[in-house]
Amino acid sequence: MADEARRKPFQLLRSFALADFITLANAACGTVAILLCVSHVEAGDSGLLWGAFVMFPLALVADALDGRVARWRRRQSMLGADLDSLADVISFGVAPAVLGYTVGLRGGWDGVVLVYFVVCGISRLARYNVTAANLADEKGKVRYYEGAPIPTSVGIVAVLAIAHGVGAVGADLWMGVWDLGPWQLHPLVLVYALSGSLMIGTFRIPKP
């Protein structure tokens, strides 16, 4: 009880380094993108969906910046790596899947593929967290990625942004829709299957 009495208010936040707050900004951008997608589905306001698209490059900037700030200030909290992975799951896993559903990937098979994509992203990040120490050089820097990094899903976001810009969403999605057994499949959703599969691949990509 004495130890608890000595705890300072907001002790968790006090333990964060500057880089951690940037990581949280990444997570915030992903969360805002999800909320804007939900609002667009309800209201049908195109501006809300454009707002969601904008959140992804902002999340990407925050994701790239937090590591640089940590190295610059030579300080990273014990939670830094886990915060980064959790933020990436939101911004580059769940949020792109919600975006796909929002623009019209709503068939039953589409849902299976979107879930597969998110699960692959989570698996990719878990593997990185477990193996990062073994992949690091003598200075502690990870030399390469194993499998595609989850932020590469921003490429899917870019494709959907173009589709939205030219009106190829909803019933007008590129490549149409297929009836496969009890459910429908929009072939466009296969970009998510490809992205997820690349994330859990074993090929190596040099890390800059």
* Helicity level: 55-70%
Low-pLDDT runs: none
Secondary structure class reads: mainly alpha
Q: Please indicate the percent range of residues in DSSP E strands (runs of 2 or more).
A: 5-15%
Q: From the alpha carbons, calculate the radius of gyration and give it in angstroms.
A: 19 Å
- Which sheet architecture does the biggest sheet show? 2 strands, antiparallel
Per the principal axes of the C-alpha atoms, what is the gross shape? globular
Kindly summarize this structure in a few lines.
With 208 residues, the protein is mainly alpha-helical. The chain has helices at residues 2-6, 11-14, 18-43, 46-73, 80-103, 108-135, 154-165, 190-199; strands at residues 144-146, 178-180, 183-185, 204-206. Strands 1-4 form a two-stranded antiparallel ribbon.
Kindly describe this structure.
It is a single chain. This protein is mostly helical and 208 residues long. 66% of the residues lie in helices and 6% in strands. The strands form two sheets. Strands 1-4 form a two-stranded antiparallel ribbon. A two-stranded antiparallel ribbon has the order 2-3. A hairpin with a 2-residue loop joins strand 2 (178-180) and strand 3 (183-185). Helix 3 runs antiparallel to helix 4 and helix 5 (80-103) runs antiparallel to helix 6 (108-135). The longest helix has 28 residues, at 46-73. The protein is globular and about 50 Å long. The N and C termini lie far apart (48 Å).
